[in-house]
Amino acid sequence: MSGKRTLSEALERLEEISNKPNPYGTGLTLLAFGSSAGAFAMLMGTSWNDVFWSAILGLMVYGLVYRAERSKRMAEMLEPLAAILCAIAASGIAQFDPSMNIPVVILSGIIIFIPGLALTLGLAELAARDLISGTARVMDAFMLLFKLYFGVILGLTIGKTLFGETTYIAPDSLPKWAIWTAVPILSMALVIIFKARMKDSPWGVMAGVVAFFSAMLGGIYFGDSIGIFFGALAVGVYSNLFARWMKAPATIALLQGIVILVPGSKTYIGLNTLILGETMFNQSHLGTQIFLIFMSIVAGLIFANVAVPPRRTL
């Protein structure tokens, strides 16, 4: 934009950045995938059994991601293959642990692929009248969601054939403090998964905490869906202040905060209810709730940019 690079030089530079080695190494990234899956299960308020098995599936998913980084053919089928294997593995584990909630564990295992963030950014672009990029991003996100969901259905069918039916035994739910603990754990895991710089990591972790607790406080007074608006507003203002103080793009902090808010998991659950008529949780009017959450996030980010304009457009 400043004229210091041509378009071809900029594209080469972007390619060079994307091909850089992982700054955190294989071991830490493996731990981050397992932690993010387990932390998401904690956020869902399930049980310790589900948290443990979700983390195991998260580790397995990273094995596929690691292989996909070195194989183009593997990369093309990564998401549906991960969904298939997670569903088969969960079906097998349920034979030994009938207290495991199979749909929740599968969803937690593949949560890193659920395109809630892409859907939100696509809708934000459409709201800003960036119609081409917004439409492309939204359609790409929906196709990824469909691939994941088909993989889960196929994997569950194979698992049922191999292992048979299981009788679910409801375990004790997680205590409240565990759900609160999940937010910083998930935020720290996202620092590694997003390959953020170490000096920016505290800001990213704090963005997740700001988003979650602002949304929670807003939800107490205005309901969960509208509470998300206050979470998006708070993390948007926080990210723009970060950009001013650190002279860095606001997205460094914004992405990790928005990921905590985006309803990608609820979109998946709504798809499950629509196609199979099954519910993972006792929630009514889920489709309306998903739409309200998406709109609340987009509106929150727009109001945040008005309240504290970012110095950088990225």
Question: How do you describe this structure in short?
Answer:
The protein has about 325 residues and is mainly alpha-helical. It has 14 helices and no strands.
Characterization of the model:
It is found in: Membrane. This protein has about 325 residues and is mainly α. It folds into 2 domains: about 20-195, no CATH class; about 195-314, no CATH class. Helix content is about 75%, strand content about 0%. The chain has helices at about 5-20, 25-45, 50-70, 70-75, 80-95, 100-110, 115-125, 130-165, 175-195, 200-220, 225-245, 250-260, 265-275, 285-305. The radius of gyration is 20 Å and the shape is globular. Mean pLDDT is about 80; it is low at about 265-275 and about 280-285.
Query: Helices and strands, in N-to-C order?
Result: HHHHHHHHHHHHHH
How far do the termini sit from each other? 12 Å
User: What value does the average pLDDT take?
Assistant: 82
Contiguous low-pLDDT stretches (5 residues minimum) are 264-277, 279-286
How many helices?
Answer: 14
Number of strands: 0
Strand content: under 5%
Rg (C-alpha, Å): 20 Å
Keywords: Membrane, Transmembrane, Transmembrane helix
Family: Belongs to the ThrE exporter (TC 2.A.79) family.
Main location: membrane
Organism: Shewanella piezotolerans (strain WP3 / JCM 13877)
Entry keywords:
about 325 residues, 14 helices, 2 domains, mainly alpha, single chain
Write the layout of secondary structure elements.
Elements: H1 7-18, H2 25-43, H3 48-68, H4 72-76, H5 78-96, H6 102-109, H7 116-127, H8 131-163, H9 176-193, H10 201-222, H11 224-246, H12 251-261, H13 264-276, H14 286-307
Helix pairs in contact: 2-3, 2-6, 2-9, 3-5, 3-6, 5-6, 5-8, 7-8, 7-14, 9-10, 10-11, 10-12, 11-12, 11-14
